Amino acid sequence: MIDYLEQIIDATSVEDVWLSHCDKMASFGFDRLLYGFTRFRTATSFGDREDFLIMTNHTGDYAETFINGGLYFHAPMVNWAVRNNGACSWAWWAQNTAMLSESEKKVVAFNIAHGVTAGYSISFRDASIRNKGAIALTAERGMTQDIVEEVWKEHGRDITVMNNVVHLKLIQLPYSTPARHLTKRQCEALEWMRDGKTTQDAAEIMGLTAATVEKHLRLAREALDVETTAQAVLKASFQNQIFVLER
């Protein structure tokens, strides 16, 4: 496990971390993963879908319906993860079907139809109530929940630690959806604003006109879907898009 953790620690991109982690989890029989993280959670929402960090190696049709179709919002284990921290067996929802809402039962039926029937979910602890991250580890087809429990009995502690390390690594790397991605100039302009510089100061430092700097700031605000430059600085900081060594 030390070799694997060193590989994760040394990774320099979200993609490298994810590929390594998918391979490692597959060695335990979890061949389909779904990871999600938001810094914009409220009492009734996870925030704008475009601000999520979502990683998955599920099939495209499954991800399209479950994620983009919004089924995740009614998934029993997602609802569990919102209220709890730590690892939870999927036997939990199987043992509590009478307590599931109609929306949750529809998600369960959808998952069963796609072979998502056995596994574990891990919800990550965070100091901020606005942040929430979790990962669903789906067992390969043919593995029953009983088999999963045997795997977890032997390796669950290691698997939990590895997923927590991956989570901590992912949220400190730059990430954004294509719609939220900032250009190098937009990032640079936001960096100078965060340093307390005026638009004119930034223009002189960047060798541009004040109007051009303001254009970069406006485009950054539009990309991040915020109204003010201060909000843009905050959101770009959350997504680790500014003050990075390499883009």
Task: Provide a descriptive summary of the structure in words.
The chain is an alpha+beta fold. It folds into two domains: 2-170, Transcription factor LuxR-like, autoinducer-binding domain (Beta-Lactamase); 178-238, Arc Repressor Mutant, subunit A. The chain is built from eleven helices and five strands; from the N terminus they run H-H-E-E-H-H-E-H-H-E-E-H-H-H-H-H. The chain has helices at 2-10, 14-26, 60-68, 76-83, 91-94, 102-113, 145-170, 184-194, 199-206, 210-224, 229-238; strands at residues 30-38, 53-56, 86-89, 119-124, 132-139. It has a five-stranded antiparallel sheet with strand order 2-1-5-4-3, sandwiched between helices. Helix 8 (184-194) crosses helix 11. The protein is elongated. The two termini are 29 Å apart.
Quick gist of this model?
The chain is α+β, with helices and mostly antiparallel strands and 247 residues long. It has helices at residues 2-10, 14-26, 60-68, 76-83, 91-94, 102-113, 145-170, 184-194, 199-206, 210-224, 229-238, and strands spanning 30-38, 53-56, 86-89, 119-124, 132-139.
